[in-house]
Amino acid sequence: MSQPEQFEVLVLGSGTAGKLIAWHMAGAGRRTAVVERKWVGGSCPNIACMPSKNEIWSAKAAHFVRHAAEFGMTTGPVVVDMAVVRERKRKMVEAQVAAHLCNYKESGAELIMGAARFVAPKTLEVTLNGGGTRLLSGDKVFINVGTHAAIPDVPGLTAAKPLTHIEALELDDLPRHLIVLGGGYVGLELAQAYRRFGSRVTIIEHGSQLMSREDRDVAEEIQQILSEERIDILLNTEVLRVSGRSGEEASLVVRTPSGERTLDCSHILVATGRIPNTAGIGLEEAGVELNERGYVRVNERLETSAPSVWALGECAGSPQFTHISEDDFRIVRDNLAGGKRSTNDRLIPYCMFTEPPLAHVGLSERDAERQNVKARVAKLPMSGVLRAQAIMEMQGFMKVLVDEADDSILGFTMIGPEAGEVMAVMETAMLADLPHTRLRDAVLTHPTMAEGLGPLLAQVPARAAEQAAARWAAMERPRHDFPLSYQIKTSVRLHTDCRSRKTDACDGFPALSRCACYYRLDPCAALPCRAKVIPQRIDQHHHTVCRSARLGRGARDRAQCHACALSSESAASSQHPGEVPTRVKARPHRRPAPRW
Length: 596
Prior knowledge:
Layout: E1 5-12, H1 16-27, E2 32-36, H2 43-46, H3 49-66, H4 82-107, E3 110-120, E4 123-128, E5 133-143, E6 147-149, H5 165-168, E7 177-181, H6 185-197, E8 200-204, H7 216-228, E9 232-234, E10 238-244, E11 250-256, E12 259-265, E13 267-270, E14 274-276, H8 283-286, E15 309-311, H9 322-336, E16 350-352, E17 358-362, H10 365-370, E18 375-381, H11 386-391, E19 397-403, E20 409-415, H12 419-431, H13 436-440, H14 453-458, H15 464-474, E21 489-495, E22 531-535, E23 544-546, E24 558-560, H16 568-573
Parallel strand pairs: 1-2, 1-5, 2-3, 5-15, 7-8, 7-13, 8-9
Antiparallel strand pairs: 3-4, 4-5, 6-14, 10-11, 11-12, 16-17, 17-20, 18-19, 19-20, 21-22, 23-24
């Protein structure tokens, strides 16, 4: 092996985290090299985030033009020229790549285009795109190789040459019928976009709902929105085999809950998940371990099993969002400077750019249930937001989770216009540890979408203890037919013993069995057990208590208190009209100690 070129910093992959660490290190004066196989800047500016949102915006424009009459405008037939749509997208990508090349030049980091693999610890052999090879070694090595679209193992699917998101964003003609395999975020975004361009679209999802990680109500709302745009959605459907070729004519045999069907289409788009680009790059030669799913095994500081080697972004198993890759860079940068940052304590916000978009941060209801976190949930339809009413876009809702133990915000989900911007407001409050009441009572600009956070948070239920206290305070005091001298008092907050057989009517309080000195009971109680604060005092040693509530008797049986005796005089004084006094031998009052 020839002597390798030595660098202080060697980066494999120019994705978001890789390029940022390279620019930072080179800007600090360290000799830095970045090896990139094809996409300068990674997938985000070339084939994923930015170009997809560019074409989605073009689809939104087509949708507006088709519905121009709703805004009082008259137009002719709408024709979408996909070649122009693609050209608009390509101009944006070219500008992004040019900006990246400028940053490489200004920072001093060397960008090497070629395919690389490890041949020894911290040593790369690069087959250059322009021919030849280079051997590179680094004091510190950063792996940022990303992921690629997975193709399901379905007979005939690979031979059919299906589209992934890369090819879908390069189409210059409109698919007659596009079948999307997968009901995840990428598939739904492109399905709606091509439906708005004018294609017939069918989504096939093997699970019981779209977006399997989302709450059921979120998935159902998105499904309703897409169905209203006449997108066909097949759930619980398995693709058995494929014939033909995508881009020409293809057929899919599927098994649905109602039986097998054959679907004909012109194009097939696969959006069923991602696979890390870790195979075939010699990680075993570098001493870098993988986990069972093929991602680089890292700790909370993004350090690999090899010394002075880090992995960042999607290949390290980080959530597959550009903004998370940016945070991976910040974590590594700060830790190299002596910090103690970790991936364990960060919020993960994300958006799906359908129309209306979906935005989420923090816990969902499903997460809270799985983690056994007690949360209060409030939900507000977008029809309750004045801004949504003003622009007449009222599909979707807002939902918030608030901790049961305090007023901290645990999570937020929104389907509606400008959802990502509203979610950022909620995320800021979460990062600042603001109680939901601070945001609820904040003065928010009218009419904005964020203004809807006020009425949303106003619907957060009170804590269980507060609800109990409210019910306690709101409950009607029982009737008293006792003479004043027989009324009862204690300083302890207690509640009446439930004497009926309808124990489910106890308002959540356990039925107790104690001396009646500790319970203020209506002598003719036909009510269920209710919470009370007992305000009177015991002036005598004797009293009555009714033990026959809801037993359906005409005359109520009387029973003496377990700790008290009831004299005939006290029984007579507390007797209801028309009832026969109950005579019980009197004995001294003995008040038992409370048993809680």
